[in-house]
Amino acid sequence: MLFLSGIVVWLAGAAGSLALWRSPALARRVGCGAALAGSLLNLAASMAALFSASPTFIGLPFGNPIFTWAVRLDPLSAYFNVTLSALAAAVALYSFGYLREMEGRRNLGAFGFFFNLLLMSLALVFTASNAFFFLVAWEVMALTAFCLVSFEHEKEKTRNAGVLFLIMSHAGTGLLLIAFLVLASESGSLDFTSFHLLASSLTPLQQGAIFLLFLFGFGVKAGIVPLHIWLPEAHPVAPSNVSALMSGIVIKTGIYGMARVFFDFYGAPPLWMGSVVLGLGVVSALVGVLYALMEHDLKRLLAWHSIENIGIILIGFGAALMFRALGQANLAALALIAALYHTFNHALFKGLLFMGAGSVVQATHTRNMEKMGGLIRRMPVTALCFLLGAVAISGLPPLNGFVSEWLTYQALLAGFGTTQSLTRLMFPVAGSLLALTAALAAACFVKAFAIPFLALPRSEPAAEARECAPSMRAGMAALAAGCVALGLGATWFVPVFDPITQQALGVRASAALVMARGWALSPGTAHGGTISTAGMAIFFLLAGAAFALPLAIRWRRRSVKGPAWDCGLPGLTAENEYTATAFSKPLRMIFSALYRPRREIQAVYKVSPYYPSAIRFESEIEHSIEKRLYGPMRRRIMAAANRMRGIQAGSINLYLAYIFITLILLLLFGVRK
Amino acid sequence: MENTAQLFLLLALSPLVTGVIRTLKARLQTRRGPGILQPYRDLLKLFRKGVVIPETASWIFTATPWVVFFSTILAGLMIPMVAADAPLGLMGGALAVIYLLGLGRFFLALSGLDSGSSFGGLGSSREMTISALAEPAMMLAIFTVAIGAGSTSMTQIAGAAIGQTWRFLAPAQMFAFAALALVLVAETGRIPVDNPDTHLELTMIHEAMILEYSGPYLALLEWAASIKQLVLMTLLINCFWPFGLQPTWFGFGALQGIGWLLAKLLLLSCAIVLLETVNAKMRLFRVPELLAVAFTLGSLALISTFLF
User: Fold this and answer.
1) Dist. CA A536–CA B229, nearest whole Å
2) What are the boundaries of each domain within chain B?
3) How far is B226 from chain A (nearest CA, A)?
4) Hey, of B45, B152, B199, B204, which one would you mutate to test binding to chain A, going by the most A CBs within 10 A of its CB?
């Protein structure tokens, strides 16, 4: 009932804000208020479902044989719904203040309409238990997301990004449709319950084909490399509250789909499937972080990090699939927990970081980090929240990113002993590349925090930036608190996964994972190491209270403010500061084989080149995947489309003939019996 | 009890190790050197001095020394020094140690950029680059060691090593040792990766990040750097040369354990001094090649775990 009322509130919010579009202030309040209320109702419903013993079916007395309203809240659905509603509540809170600036300039009624519909369709994607219903919800999600991404449609870049998203998304849906139809023709029903373990009973060829269809179909939405190209375009151009939802939860629908297929429709998949997922995960993680390092558009940087984190989640999935193939249910549970834990964590910290970026962009009117700086003094709360998010996403203790990355490492470590074949080398190699990814992510977030927030302001608007509205701060603070809670409370959170692993793998893992009366987390393997994030936090707090605070107060009396020493050079200005481009220069040189950087320096001088009056500097890196993979593909599609133009003569008689021929062909070959 | 003892050891011993290395290096270069107690005198002096805080810096600047100091100490309490039983072993193993040091480095890099001085930014950029490139090699070496011991818990790794004293002669362990030793050189900022004695703009890394610090805050950072060096050296020593490592901290055994620890630290210090004296500092863009060697050694270590 709670779940349904959440859906109803969202629908009402959508209708209400659309109806009130002429009075923007009211439309904004209704739209955000309904989104918030619906999210809270949904949160309560899915929390209850997560802890209930049996899956909750929510039926409505309507439907026909094809389209049935089939909603099921099993543990996996409930978990993703909790993720959705926790993030959505914070984003809705944030939107109250964020949208205020757009009042009178944009149609907030339309925004509220699409925003609420997006949340509703997301909740339905996570809970639909009928393939047709699922695809309908999936399409509504794609279309509402497209409308929200293209909200600032007067810019050409935004329109292009929106269209690219729409095309990629539909290509993915096409793959999903085929895969679902194959399954449905096998089971004779579109119901998800009839697909349970069904895929494993198919022939190996069919199994493999369906697996790849699902992997790439869902992979487009998740943004795995090389299907990611829409993501760094679409996420930054959207309004920042939408970016938070897109990166936080919309791409997770791909992850949910994979989890549903891999751990529900398949029994024990062959080993190669897990290896493929693991390999794609490693590649996505590395490519994501390497391109993020080169960005100085704050929101594009965050978008690339979404690709990286999807990669980390897939590493966990891949390991879980491999363990399942190897008959290691306990280890599969560990890897699955690591992946799902990271899914939740990423929703929290990426939502937080995008909202922080949104506040900063609103205050400085630019997405270019090189034009920010010194914002920690102007926007202290935003800065603190962004810092917490940055520490969390870099996987540093004691916050939540560390816990899920640690669990992933432990799963990979344990994987080495599970088989004697050379496949086991994949685990440590993946582990070491994950370590590289995490360290590069830390480097990237030093840049992403320090350049906008620290040192001197690099532009006029940055120098006069103002702290964001209280509701925006509250939204960010809620997610920051979530990052801390899921970090320190890891052992209290892990039992949440018991119903999920029970359903997917028949194992309840939390008893083995939680040690020392809930103070330490262990991987549950025979000789696992342990961590205690709560213990670390207590150590820091105690040490801070006992030593740092009193000493800092005493030293304060001895301290004076002075100009930065800067090796004795007087007069530090913003032009002297290290820039984001300079910060990533060493990595640009080291990985130049990937980036193929190009730069151009032109000095304008009057007398001698040693005394330039102006310098023009241009630097660019190549996006190899777009250029080398999609470039030829796009050219071929355009050429084919040109050739196809011949059959579109514009004559109605010709079109009728086409329909007639198609009908004959269908009657000849399509209808058997 | 063992917490306090190890804490004391970390705090008291770390400047000594720095002092010994400096003096040995000076002797090898036919200088007299400042004496092995100089780091203590430096710390004492700095703690009594006043502080100058750059006008451009934020609260990150004053918070960083504490974060760095405490995270290093916490990492130090997670490794076995005298007894195989690490005092805070339950709080984390090898991975937690690496990530806690990473936390310190994250804040140090932020504070390098905080004052707006371009030297700080230069140091932060280089430090984060080099540490990122060192990470895969370190993880492979730790994987090798952990696979041998069946755990990432330091207590279990050291415990497994005690049982097989001569295991470090196995090819896998030798390769892993070499890989970790190279990583240690990079992480502690020693020649040929970084020169701890330099203040030349073009070459400094760690020193560039802490350039704006003065007084007690500088002391904290210097002390933390010494402790980090001690922690990483002890990690290397006790994973691979478990001689004299005691099962517990209690009784006469502890004294014996401390003796062994000092002897092994001295041996490793001599190796570092030798390495620093016969090598010149590398160009920054040759460091990735050195770390690639470490990565290759780590891969070899891993492959040899099931070849031999």
Assistant:
1) 21
2) 2-307
3) 19
4) B152
**Which residues of chain B have a CB within 8 Å of the CB of A532?**
90-92
**B232 touches A: beta carbon within 8 Å:** no
The two three-digit tokens of residue B269, written as one number: 């210090």
Residues of A in contact with B153 (CB under 8 A): 527-530
A472 against B305, higher pLDDT: A472
pLDDT at B83: 86
B210 touches chain A (CB under 8 A): no
Which DSSP string corresponds to A454-497? SSS-SSHHHHT--PPPHHHHHHHHHHHHHHHHHHHTHHHHGGGG
Question: pLDDT tens across A256-283, in order?
Answer: 999 999 999 998 889 999 999 999 999 9
Task: Please state whether beta strands A68-73 and A514-515 pair in parallel, antiparallel, or not at all (unpaired).
Answer: unpaired
Q: Rounded mean pLDDT of B284-303?
A: 91
Q: What is the pTM of this model?
A: 0.95
SS (HEC) of A293-342? HHCCEHHHHHHHHHHHHHHHHHHHHHHHHHHHHCCCHHHHHHHHHHHHHH
Which stretch of DSSP H or E encloses residue B54? strand B51-54
| Closest Cα in chain A to B155 | A529
A427: nearest Cα among A263, A558, A315, A339: A315
Amino acid at B51: V
* pLDDT at B87 (0 to 100): 87
Put simply, the answer to whether B117 touches A391 (Cβ < 8 Å) is no
- Inspect the interface and report whether the beta carbons of A527 and B153 lie closer than 8 Å: yes
Helix axes A329-364, A75-98, angle to 10 degrees: 10
Does B200 contact A at CB distance below 8 Å? no
CB contact under 8 A, B99 and A395: yes
Contact A139, A133 (CB under 8 A): no
Of the candidates B89, B118, B211, the beta carbon closest to that of A565 is on B211
d(CA A33, CA A38): 8
The residues with which A451 forms a beta bridge, in sequence order, are none
A586: chain B residues, CB-CB within 8 Å: 125-126, 129, 284-285
Q: How far apart are CA A161 and CA B286, in angstroms?
A: 40
Please report where in the chains the tokens 């009211």 appear, as a residue. Answer: A26
CA angle B67, B68, B74 (to 5 degrees): 85
CA-based nearest distance A515→chain B, Å: 9
Q: Which residues pair with A63 in a beta bridge?
A: A68
> What pLDDT score does A383 carry?
97
Using the Cβ of A394 and the Cβ atoms of chain B, whether some distance falls under 8 Å is answered with yes
Q: How many CB pairs under 8 A join A and B?
A: 263
Q: Do A530 and B298 touch (CB under 8 A)?
A: no
Q: Could you give the CA distance from residue A174 to residue A142 in angstroms, rounded to a whole number?
A: 13
Pick the range with the lowest mean pLDDT from A216-220, A383-387, A503-507.
A503-507
Per-chain mean pLDDT for chain A = 91
- The answer to whether ipTM exceeds 0.90 is yes
Contact A479, A89 (CB under 8 A): no
The distance of A209 to chain B (nearest Cα, Å) reads 34
Distance in Å, alpha carbon of B184 to nearest chain A alpha carbon: 16
Q: How far apart are CA B128 and CA B108, in angstroms?
A: 10
State how far the Cα of B205 lies from the Cα of B195, in Å rounded to an integer: 8
Residues contacting B190, CB < 8 A, separation 6+: B196, B272, B275, B276
- H/E element, A598: strand A598-605
Distance in angstroms (rounded) separating the CA atoms of residues A330 and A333 = 5
In this predicted model, what pLDDT tens digit does every residue of A101-146 receive, in sequence order?
888 888 999 999 999 999 999 999 999 988 999 999 999 999 999 9
Helix, strand or coil, per DSSP, at residue B195: coil
